[in-house]
Amino acid sequence: MQPFSFATTAQILCEAGGSQRLASLCRERGARRVLIVTDPGIARLGMLDDVLPGFSAAKVAVAIFSDVTADPHEDCVLAAVARARHIGADLIVGFGGGSSMDVAKLVALLAHPDSQQAITQLYGIDQAKGPRLQLIQVPTTAGTGSEVTPIAIVTTGETSKMGIVSSLLLPDLAVLDAVCTLGLPPAVTAATGIDAMVHAIEAYTSKLKRNPLSSLLAREALRLLATHLDQAVHNGGNLAARQAMLLGACLAGQAFANAPVAAVHALAYPLGGHFHIPHGLSNALVLPHVLRFNLPVAQADYAELAVPLLGGRLRSGDRNSHAEQLVEELAELAPRCGLPSRLRDVDVPRDRLPQLASDAMQQQRLLVNNPREVTEADALAIYEAAY
């Protein structure tokens, strides 16, 4: 066995209704002033209305920063940091999707009174320095797994994104409460669910850091997600399915936090950067085409993953047949869930595909993890197949 290390969030609370105890969970950690980082939609929908009264009862001061945008820019992070410093926050809560949780991670790091770093010094792997404020994450989508990953993605220019990777970004507590996901529209439920499935698949085939724990988590994540996605999408009030999706996304997050994602994500990022296509949908659009590109070298792994993905629907056959069934099943996911399945369906012009391929090559942090080497010509061919 190859040596490996595995790191994750210190504590996970998986409980429907668990977010109602958020104030007491903050109090237990000695917090006196808490900043909740979220987005305008969460605030507008009143999703914090049942959570906030608990802070008065717990005698913990609380403020809300609700200006997180999709694909948050550096300016958004810095505005949240300024708010945390202004109130003297000693604990940060990320409440929302991946964007809110990513911003919360960076606020916890940059708003600490002893922080000496600028955000521009954090980009890359292990550039961040401690200490940081305490951090709790409450995901409201079953997708990113950000509540258990040491990664934050920041938009740094008009179309460019950069990653910050550091164990300091791992939260102290993740609260998985399916009640927080009940209001998600079917399309968002589908896109975020497929995103989580991609995390599991890419972690399982990750070239450099795959390990027994990440593989175990990836398989169970894929089983949970595949089993419950249809119910969560088409019967959104099914709390049990929602809770299973949250757990599946969390397990997939733990897997890819330690065995990083690869070409699907590398090709998805330029779609978000140039055309503001939501991250989960970007992944769904390129997923089957990257898998088919990887088949010659990842056939054995894909055949193994076909078992948790398809369960009793897996047809008899050899390894090649099972790998093909995995690709076919994942190609059908987007249309079955009511999502677009072609780049042309989301208004990506064909003449922009070479630019997308060029930009994807900038994601070497991810591409080195792919089981098969990807050249710029390969990336263009994959975009062409997805068109």
From TrEMBL:
This is Iron-containing alcohol dehydrogenase. It holds the Pfam family Fe-ADH. InterPro entries: ADH_Fe/GldA, ADH_Fe_C, ADH_Fe_CS, Alcohol_dehydrogenase_Fe. Keywords: NAD, Oxidoreductase. It comes from Pseudomonas khorasanensis. GO terms for molecular function: alcohol dehydrogenase (NAD+) activity; metal ion binding. Transmembrane segments: none annotated. Gene3D superfamilies: 3.40.50.1970, Dehydroquinate synthase-like - alpha domain. The keyword S-adenosyl-L-methionine does not apply. Belongs to the iron-containing alcohol dehydrogenase family.
